[in-house]
Every structure is written in C-alpha cells, then in structure tokens.
C-alpha cells in the first residue's frame, strides 16, 4: 500500500454527519492498494478549510476593503441622479434604496451561510458545485464559462480613462480612452502578479481614500445646511419635507423596475471576500464580521449621500441632469472650476480601487477553475510561481477584459457589460438561493456556523426574479437592459416594422432618449419612442 503521508490532505477520514460513504472509501482503499492515489470524492471534503499556497495573509482590514471597494464604486457619483430622473421624486428614490438594501441583506445571508459552511476560495463556484452534484461537472462547467468569458473589469477601466482625461483637460478620443483603460488594467494585473503584497497595500489605501471622499461629501452637504443657513442651499431642506417628498412621482412599474435594477447593481459584491477565503486569516469569523460591516457601511453611505445631494442640489436640476448629480453637487459647494477637478479625480480614484479589488478576487476564482482542469495548460495557469501569486489567474482575467475594451465602441462598452453580466449574475444568485434551500432538506447534518433566515432566501429568490425580468418588457424605460418584445400575443407594429411577440432584442439609449432595439430574428434595427 502506498505511504499514507502521500494521501490528499483534504481526504475525509470520518463521516461529517450520519451519511455513510462506505463505497467511496472502499474505492479509495482499492486505489491505494493498486499503487494509485486519487483525491477523495467525499462531499465532506468541501466543508474543510483549505489554505492557499500563498498563505493566509489577508487581515480583517484588507478583507473589509476588498468588499467595500467592490460594492461602493464609481456608481455612487451617478446612480442616485439617474434613479431620481427616472422615478421623479426624492421619496420614491430613497424608498428604492431601502428596498435594495433589504434584498442585498437577503442575498448576503445566503452567501454567509454557504461561505461559513464551505470556507474555501471560489465563492459561488464552490456553492453551486456543492449544491448541484448531478449531472456531474455541469455546475462547474457552466460557472467556469461564466467566470472566464464574462468575469471582466472593463467597465471601471473605461470610467477611469474618461474621468482622468476630463480632469487633465484632455479631449477623450476613442483611441486615447481605450489606451488609458488598457494601461490601467495592465498596471493592476502586473502589480498584483509581480508585487502581491504591494498590490494589497495599494488597494487598501485607495479603499480608505474612497471612503474618505464619500464621508467628506456627506459632511459637506450637512455643513452647508446646518452651519450656513443663509446660503442658497438652505431652502433646499424643504425637498425632504413630507409634503414635497413625493411630488411628481412616477408610479409606472417599468420605471420602478428599471430603477430597482440599478439599485441592486449598486450593492453587488458583498460576497467578494468569499472568493479569496483560502488567504483570509480566521476565515469564518472574518467573513461573517466583514460582510455585515460592509453591508452596514454601504447602506449608510448610499442613504446619506442621497440625502446630501437633496440638501444641496435642487430636485428640478437633478431631474434634468441625471448622472451628472455629483457634478452639480461639487459645483454648488466649491464653484465650477474647483468642482470640475475634484469630481473627476474622485471618480477616477474610486474606479482604480474597484478595478484592483475585482481583479484580485476574480484572479483567485479563475485559478480555482484552472486547478480543476477546465482550461488548457491548467497546471501552468493554476500555479502560484514564480512570484507566489496567481499570475495564471490574472492572465485569464486580462484577456477577456482587454478584448471587451478594444473591440466595441467605447461609448457602448458600459451598457454592454451591464446588460450581459447583470442578467447572468442574477441567474447565478437565484441558483445559489435554491441550492441553499435544497441542502437544508437534503443535508441537515452539515455544520452551519451561520444560518440564514429562511424568509431571507425567499426574498433573494424574489429579488433575483425581479432583477431578471425588470428590463425584459418594452415599456417606459428599458435602459441598458436586454428586452423582450411581448406587448401582446399578436405582436406590435413599431415604426413601420412588424415585431412579433417573443422576439428577442438588444437595446440601449441614444442621445434622444430613444430605445434602439436590434431584432435578433429579422436582423433589423427599430426605434421605440419610450420615456
């Protein structure tokens, strides 16, 4: 028999619960007798912690920044304004942020139960593989396709390039914007690959700078109102009075659903630390405290920033400017010249921090995919040599991000990413929530250091369904979403083109606020006037 010291470290030696794995252990013994060592296939192997070859070098602070920098990105400077522009009132806008926070908490509860039960790098990949073991390798294959093909950081690279050029007073041509975006991506991947410890320190510093900028914005808004009541901003407190809070509200479901999609997208990433659990010190305890702290921080920052906007910027200007709300905020506080420099600089720094933490986590996830042999040259791509970092994971991450940035026109990149990645992420979230309920009944014996409240899983499933269909129907606001023409069973005639019910279309907004739809079936472009 082969030396037992050569057996896999994570091979289960006793049943975790009441389920007997006799046949599996017999197969393992037979394999050892034949001189062949195979990894154990026991389900319980997955519930044991696994330490990365890099070591557990992520402290609580680094894990917290990894999450909060992923959640609070550059969207905090634009998304509140676009939501007010869509729904029309401060009251409904703030209500949607509360609903979004509740759904985010439900999703986090599900992720925490899985993450504390399966404390290993990979996040949703590990959860889906554990919950859906039949057909064999189906969950692994589908998630590998999603992570490799759609797991990129192109959007914030493009945002960084445009705002950095604006701050420098340079015209943002298509070539220059793409070149600067690719340069940022290259810098991030090289830094994390060659200088892993320095990369973590840089993203920690950028994370705290981002939080500091947002706190400064909040305090500035409240300072203007509390300590300078004679300024032009003082009368704007009436915008938050109950009698004015709901003025000009749009109660159309299409508008509300699209706005909810944007809110949900703003809370994405609360489970980012789960992707690097093999490198986190005291993984279960850290994951639980970091995720809950980040959720509270994100909710507080989003709500207070919205209130600060309403205290400084007139609601009429917000409705007319949309995503430029932060520009109006800084302009009214510090003047046009100073505001034109502060805002783009803040957005650019926020984007860099977001790119660094996303690339850091995604590279680890893709390294785990390579370890399973789903990619060519898996042994090379899964290695941590020569810099004791997942360089192969960064290479896998770099290629699709690079292609997404250079192939489409830069103006349509962000819309394309939000469309494709948003819907795939919601389907994965729905599958994870269903898998959790499934395991509650099939494997009640598993140890769960954190147990999600069952209504939370129902809330997540409902939220995932809403997010998946919120932009599906052509209505008053289809935004960047993938749309399905389903006006009635007989279809509809749009601008002289016959559109059959059920035709799949891809759409986005042009400068005239018209939804341009591309009919996949007929390969025609039609224009739908919807506001």
Automatic annotation (TrEMBL):
Keywords: Membrane, Transmembrane, Transmembrane helix
Sequence segments annotated as region (Disordered): 1-46
GO molecular function: L-amino acid transmembrane transporter activity
Subcellular location(s) of the protein: Membrane
Keyword Transmembrane helix set for record: yes
Keyword flag Cell membrane: no
InterPro entries, A to Z: AA/rel_permease1 (IPR002293), AminoAcid_Transporter (IPR050598)
Biased composition (Polar residues): 1-21
Gene3D superfamilies found in the cross-reference section: Amino acid/polyamine transporter I (1.20.1740.10)
Residues annotated as transmembrane: 63-84, 96-116, 137-163, 175-195, 207-226, 251-270, 290-312, 341-363, 395-417, 423-441
Classification via Pfam families: AA_permease_2 (PF13520)
Membrane topology: Multi-pass membrane protein
GO annotations of cellular component type: membrane
Protein's UniProt name: Low-affinity methionine permease
Organism: Fusarium oxysporum f. sp. narcissi
Lineage of the organism: Eukaryota, Fungi, Dikarya, Ascomycota, Pezizomycotina
């Amino acid at each position: 028999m082969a030396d037992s010291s050569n057996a896999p470290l994570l091979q289960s030696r006793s049943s975790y619960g009441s389920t007997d794995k006799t046949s599996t252990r017999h197969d393992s013994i037979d394999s050892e007798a034949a001189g062949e060592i195979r990894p154990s296939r026991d389900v319980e192997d997955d519930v044991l912690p696994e330490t990365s070859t890099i070591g557990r070098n992520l402290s609580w602070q680094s894990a917290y920044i990894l999450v909060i920098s992923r959640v609070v990105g550059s969207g905090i400077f634009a998304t509140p304004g676009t939501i007010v522009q869509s729904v029309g009132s401060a009251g409904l806008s703030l209500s949607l942020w509360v609903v979004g926070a509740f759904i985010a908490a439900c999703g986090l509860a599900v992720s925490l139960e899985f993450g504390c039960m399966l404390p290993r790098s990979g996040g949703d990949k590990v959860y889906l593989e554990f919950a859906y073991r039949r057909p064999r390798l189906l969950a692994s294959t589908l998630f590998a396709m999603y992570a490799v093909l759609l797991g990129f950081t192109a959007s914030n690279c493009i945002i960084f390039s445009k705002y950095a050029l604006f701050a420098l007073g340079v015209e943002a041509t298509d070539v220059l914007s793409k070149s600067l975006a690719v340069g940022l991506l290259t810098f991030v991947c090289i830094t994390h690959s060659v200088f892993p410890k320095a990369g973590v320190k840089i993203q920690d510093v950028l994370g705290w700078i981002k939080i500091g900028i947002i706190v400064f914005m909040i305090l500035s808004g409240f300072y203007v109102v509390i300590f300078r009541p004679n300024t032009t901003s003082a009368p704007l407190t009436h915008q938050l009075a109950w009698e004015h809070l709901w003025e000009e509200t749009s109660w159309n479901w299409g508008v509300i659903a699209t706005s909810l999609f944007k809110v949900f997208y703003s809370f994405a990433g609360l489970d980012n630390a789960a992707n690097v659990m093999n490198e986190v010190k005291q993984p279960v305890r850290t994951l639980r405290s970091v995720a809950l702290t980040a959720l509270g921080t994100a909710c507080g920052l989003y709500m207070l920033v919205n209130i600060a906007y309403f205290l400084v910027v007139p609601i009429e200007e917000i409705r007319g400017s949309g995503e430029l709300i932060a520009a109006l905020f800084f302009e009214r506080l510090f003047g046009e010249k100073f505001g034109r420099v502060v805002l783009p600089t803040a957005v650019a720094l926020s984007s860099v921090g977001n790119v660094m933490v996303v690339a850091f986590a995604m590279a680890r996830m893709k390294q785990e995919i390579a370890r399973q042999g789903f990619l060519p040259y898996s042994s090379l791509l899964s290695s941590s040599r020569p810099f004791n970092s997942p360089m192969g994971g960064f290479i896998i991450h770099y290629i699709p991000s690079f292609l997404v940035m250079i192939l489409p026109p830069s103006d349509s990149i962000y819309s394309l990413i939000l469309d494709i990645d948003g819907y795939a992420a919601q389907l994965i979230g729905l599958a994870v929530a269903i898998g959790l309920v499934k395991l509650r009944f099939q494997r009640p014996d598993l140890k769960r250091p954190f147990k999600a409240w069952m209504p939370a899983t129902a809330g997540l499933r409902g939220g995932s369904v809403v997010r998946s269909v919120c932009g599906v129907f052509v209505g008053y606001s289809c935004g960047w979403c993938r749309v399905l023409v389903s006006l009635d069973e007989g279809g509809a005639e749009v601008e002289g083109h016959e559109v059959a019910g059920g035709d799949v279309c891809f759409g986005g907004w042009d400068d005239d606020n018209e939804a341009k739809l591309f009919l996949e079936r007929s390969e025609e472009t039609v224009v739908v006037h919807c506001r």
